[in-house]
Each structure stands twice: as C-alpha cells, then as structure tokens.
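hey so u asked for the seq, here:
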Amino acid sequence: MKQLQISFIGAGAMAEALISGWLKNNHLTGEQITVTNRSNDRRLNELKEFYGIQTTRSEKELIKEDTFIILACKPKDWKSAIQPYLSSFTKNTPIISVMAGVSTDAIEKEVEKEKIPVIRTMPNTSASVGASMTTIAFGKEVSSEIAKKVEGLFQGVGETAVIAEHQMDAATALTGSGPAYIYYLMEAMEMAAENMGIEPALAKKLVSQTLLGASIRVQDSDQQPAQLYKQIMSPGGTTEAGFQVLEANNVQQSLISCILRAWERSFELGELKDLKNPQELMNYNKR
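ran it, structure tokens below
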C-alpha cells in the first residue's frame, strides 16, 4: 500500500506539534513528511535535523500527486503563502487548513481552477504528546474516502470531532486556544505553591497531576463540573474559603469573557470581519 505523504506550507509551532506527535506515535515516518516555509532556512534545518523529516524549496517536491497539503501558516499570510503553488494543486492534492478563522469556502475560491478537496481543522499543541483535541469540518468537495483518511490522520495525535463549519470558530476559541488558558492557571497554582514554600519541581508535579486527574474524572463521570467541585467543598472548609476569593474576583466570568473574545478574534481573522460582537456572531451561526 502506498504510504500517505504530508506536505506542510508553514513551519511554526502547530506544524511542529503535529510532526512531533505523528512521529512519537509511529503514525508517520520522517520520509512521509515534507515541510517548507516562506524564507526561514534556519527553521527548516532545525526541523530536518531534529525530526528527520524532509524539507524543500522545490514546488515539485512539495506538491505531488495524492499528497495531503497542510496549510500551517499565519492566517494573515495564507493567500500569499499558497500563491506559488496554485498551479500545482489538483483534485488529488487535498488541502487541510490548521489556521484559525479561514473558512473552507475562502480557500476553495482561492484555488478555484479545480474541485479541490478542502478540510478545515483545529488541532492544538497537545498533539506533540498525542493528546490533541482536533475538530474537523469538511468542504463541499471532500469525498468519504478522503474524510476517513483525514480523521485517521488526526487520530494519530489525539481525539477528533467532526463538526459543522459554523462551529469551527467557537472550537478554535475553546480547544485551539484552550491549552494556553490551562497553562496560565497552572502557572498561577505553581506560583502559589512557591509562595507556600514548595520547591518548583515538586510544585510542577503536584499541579500537573492534579489537573490531569480532574480532567480524567470529568471524562469518566456523568456529573457536571459544578457537581464535582461542590463535592469537594465542605461548609467552612479550605475549598470554600478559596472559592470565596474566586467569586469575589469574578474569575469564572473573566474566563468566559476570555473565551468569547478569542471566538470573536477567530471571525476577525477570517472573512467575517464586520461582525463585531457575540450577538452578531450568534445570529450569523443561526443562518
């Protein structure tokens, strides 16, 4: 059976996280992955030496028949990034976007010469350890065979969920950006630990395992998070005392506002820049 070939246009953090995860899980080999970027040869050399992948500046080496193309450039740069390759894209080179805010329709219009399969995905950097939550939306030209291959590809770096495209901006805010907010929370917990005299290495272990255990419990339980934290909160106890500080500082609403702002920003990065507030975005999603 012919091995799946993957070519990245863009060599940033998301591309590296996917490469790392696929190789660690033996889902792909270095010979199956080729990467290019606009002009940073040093970055390409770093990836080639560390991961044993292929890098190129050759259009013919990058865009081959039956190769899955992954657009991993910055959303503001994607049109200029694919411009040199437009003549090489065909219906046999599916395009997978891992960019925030860019719709399958926008990409299909840019490569309009053929009915090219376009897939929009939003993995996260937990792909590097095989624990990504990747959402997937398929463009109108994607066959069931290609859809199955794309799902299998991203299952090689974690869990997947196929969703309607109008939900992708929300998923971007929730799962694409989400790990950053968790790391921020972990940083605060580790800083508190140090203030209480716990050494950094031990603080990291205590905090990371605590969050891992809490996440696994949510996954394995039929109960809602609110029910689970209330089980820990004895009247007059330590947890309740801490919660009183969180509520006094409106922490939960701040986190909600944080995620909603990320959702808005995903729209701003795409073609829906004129939608300025959550209500307008909700109205658009109901269309």
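Strands lie at 5-9, 33-36, 54-55, 67-71, 95-97, 118-122, 132-138, 158-162. The first strand starts at residue 5 and ends at 9.
lmk if thats what u needed
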